[in-house]
C-alpha cells in the first residue's frame, strides 16, 4: 500500500505519468470520502492536499458524528434525516474511531427547549434518524438530571433529555478513510498543492499543475473530472478556473478549550444553552473535559485560525453560567483549537442559522465543486458527487456505490457487536509485549485491526528517550499514514497536542530526532518543522 513517506517519489511519478478518471483537490474528510467512493467503484483516482491530510476543518471540529438535533430547531428536517441515518453507517464502518456517547440536554425555564418541545423534538429526531431502540431518547426529572451531572446549575432546572450521539477523532476518521481509498489503488499525496488548472481546446478543465510543497518540484496530473473539495479554500481553488461561477462561501470559526478533569470534574457529556441563547457542548474525554463551540464569521487566513482571548473568555463564561460550582480561569485552559467551517452564504443570516446542507455545482469549464455539509454526512456527499461524475462521463467500468457497508481501514471484520471482545483479546496480546493492559486497550481502541502493525513496531523498539508505545505509534504513522512532520504526528495522527499537551512538550525533541533520522530531514527541514511545532504549541496554549 503506497501510503508511506518512502513512497512520495513513486506516487508523484505515477500521478504525472497516468491519466485518471478523477482528480480530487482537498484531503479533508470530504475529499477522502470522494476518493474512497470513486476508487471502490473501480475508477482511477488521484488526490492532492496542500497541507497534511485533515489539517483544515477535518481536525478541528467538535469531534462528534452527530445527528444534528440543532438543525431541527431551524426546521431543516431533511438534514436531520440524512445525517441521522449516516452517523449509524459511519459508526458501523469504523467502530474503532467512533464511540456511542450519551448526551444530556438539561432543560431550564425560559430555555431554548421546554420539556414538552424537547420530548417531541427528540422523538421526531429518533424517527427521522432511525435511531436504534436501545439508543432512543429518555426524558428525565430534575433529580435524575442532577444525578447524572451534579455540577449542573440547579436553579430553574425543569429536567433533561437524554439521547445518544457518537464521539470520534475527526482527523483519524479522515486518515482511515484515506487509507481505505489507497487500498483500492487511489494515489493520495499530502503537501502537494494544486496551482493551476489544465485545459483542453474546448476550454474544459482536464487536470491541474501541482507543486510538491516539500521539494518545490512541479508536475501535471491529467484527469477526466476534477473535483474541488478544498473546504475553506474552495473559493480560492475556483478563482484559478478561467471560467468560474459566482456562488459564494462564508467562513465561520469555531473554538474549543480543554481543561483537566481534576479542575472540571465533568462526568457526563452535556449539550446546553448559553446565556446568549447559543448551544454549546461540554464533553469528558480521556481525563479531560473539552468545551465548544463558538460560531462567528471569519475573514482571515483559514490556514491558521486561532483561539483569541475573547473566544476563550466566552467559553469560560459559558462554563460559569452552566456549572456555577466550577471555578475555572484562563490558567486552567491546557489547550485550545480553532476550526473554520465553509458554509454556503445566505444573506442576512447569523452564523449559527446558516444551513449545513452540502451543495454541488459545476462550472462551465466542467470543474466540479462540493461545499457545505457536515463531518457526519461525508459518505453520502461522496456518493452524490461520484454518482454525478459517473452520470456525466458515462464511465462503463464504474460499479455502483459500495460504501454503505464498507469497513474502513482498521475495521476489517469488527463491528459494534464484537468490538469489545476484540479489544479485550488484543489487549492481552499487548500485555504480553510488556505494556500495561490499559495502554494496550487504548492502542486497540485507536487502531482497530491495524494494531497488529503497531504491535510489530512495539516488538522492535526498546524504552529510551521515547516511551515504547509512543515510539511504535510514531513508526506506524511514518510508514503507514504518510506522516512527514512532527505536527502531523502530534496534532492529526494522535491528537496529543489537544488532549495531552504536556506529553508533546516532554517528548517533542525525541520525536523530532527519530523523524529526522527515519525520514532524512535536511538541517533546514529539521529547523522549519521544529519551529512549526513550537508555534502550534504556543497557539494551542496561549490564546492571543
Distance between the termini: 42 Å
Which stretches are poorly predicted, pLDDT < 50 over at least 5 residues? none
Structural class: alpha+beta
Number of helices: 18
| Overall form | globular
What would you say the CATH architecture of the largest domain is? 3-Layer(bba) Sandwich
As an assembly, this protein is single chain
Strands, total number? 18
Reported by name, the CATH topology of the largest domain is FAD/NAD(P)-binding domain
User: Mean pLDDT, rounded to whole units?
Assistant: 90
- CATH class of the largest domain reads Alpha Beta
Largest sheet: 10 strands, mixed
Integer tally of domains: 3
Report what the structure shows:
This protein has 18 helices and 18 strands. The protein is of the alpha+beta class. Strands 3, 4, 5, 6, 11, 12, 13, 14, 15 and 16 form a 10-stranded mixed sheet that branches. The longest helix is centred in the last third of the chain and has 20 residues.
